[in-house]
Write a structure and sequence with these properties.
86 residues; alpha+beta; four-stranded mixed sheet; 4 strands; 43% helix; 20% strand
Length: 86
């Protein structure tokens, strides 16, 4: 099973879009780290990713980025092989 982690917040439309895209690819389990409800969640996410926006998506150990990055990877044909490889 592919290990997918997504740093997100409770009210983030891009987080919902990322989750929907992944579910449409057959992914049923996404580990969500709710940075708005975990102490120091935003700080920890920023230290790990170097970014300030959500979602921040990891597939395995690879940092994909946000929803726009995920969607671009899919359009370029790189998402399916990555989901199968992990």
């Amino acid at each position: 099973m592919t290990d997918i982690r997504m740093y997100c917040t409770a009210f983030c439309p891009y987080c919902v879009r990322a989750e929907t895209l992944l579910k449409n690819k057959g992914i049923s389990e996404i580990t969500k780290i709710m940075v708005d409800s975990v102490p120091d969640g935003f700080r920890d996410m920023m230290e790990l990713t170097g970014r300030r926006t959500v979602p921040q998506i990891y597939i395995g150990d690879r940092h994909i980025g946000g929803f726009d990055d995920l969607a671009a990877l899919d359009r370029q044909g790189g998402l399916d092989p990555l989901l199968e490889a992990v």
